[in-house]
Write a structure and sequence with these properties.
Helices cover about 70% and strands about 0% of the residues. With about 220 residues, it is mainly α. Helix 2 packs antiparallel against helix 3 and helix 3 runs antiparallel to helix 4.
């Protein structure tokens, strides 16, 4: 009698264990996926360009990180950069503007916004971004280069602002003296012609870069005009 009770107990225990195993496996199989905490709209990319394998992997990583933490600054920046690379200008600008609110002095964000505005022919907005960079740090050569291009080719009514811009850069960023001297030589030669100044700055440039044959040839031409 005792032995029979033990057998019944073992059978019941086995049934219970099998039942628990079935429930466990079924539960894992049908476990709902973890809810994404980010707004799904942010992942929309308006582009006709097919993502490369590298970009697709990057996109999946970004999506995973933002689903876990919608405020992940680096992931948001990476997503904005991906949209920029895929020519989704509006999407990229919207994200960069949000990032700028969080970190107004992030030069990478300002620089990328400047490029997007420039490529969209919004030159005044591009100008604002590059000027904002120089207020943060005068030691950012791409900002000088882009402002010169904007004033020379697009906001031409401001081309005379190139001179004080470059002279100020020369003073505050002496490590890039040669670059500023070269830009000033071209400014006085081609943008707002001033022959004596152009000669002066081509001579200064050749003192710093004696092997610059283009500058040497142009100096020769100017001195014999």
């Amino acid at each position: 009698m005792k032995k029979k009770k033990i057998e019944i107990f073992l059978v019941i225990l086995l049934v219970i264990l099998l039942g628990l195993l079935v429930i466990f496996r079924f539960g894992l199989k049908n476990k709902p996926s973890e809810k994404c905490l980010a707004d799904e709209k942010i992942f929309s990319i308006q582009t006709e360009i097919k993502l490369s394998e590298r970009q697709a992997r990057s996109f999946q990583r970004i999506k995973k990180e933002l689903c876990q933490d919608p405020d992940n600054y680096q992931a948001l920046f990476d997503l904005a950069r991906l949209k920029q690379d895929l020519l989704d200008f509006d999407g990229a600008v919207s994200l960069y503007q949000e990032l700028r609110k969080r970190k107004p002095k992030d030069i990478a964000v300002l620089n990328n916004l400047g490029a997007l505005y420039y490529n969209s022919k919004k030159y005044k907005k591009a100008e604002e971004m590059y000027q904002a960079i120089l207020k943060i740090t005068p030691k950012w050569m791409p900002a000088y280069t882009e402002l010169v291009n904007i004033y020379r080719y697009h906001l031409t009514e401001k081309k005379k602002e190139i001179e004080p811009l470059l002279l100020n850069g020369l003073e505050k960023y002496p490590e890039m003296k040669q670059g500023f001297i070269a830009k000033l030589a071209v400014y006085y030669d081609e943008i707002v012609p001033n022959k004596s100044k152009a000669i002066e700055y081509y001579k200064k440039l050749l003192q710093l870069d004696p092997q610059n044959t283009t500058a040497a040839q142009r100096l020769e031409e100017l001195t014999h005009q």
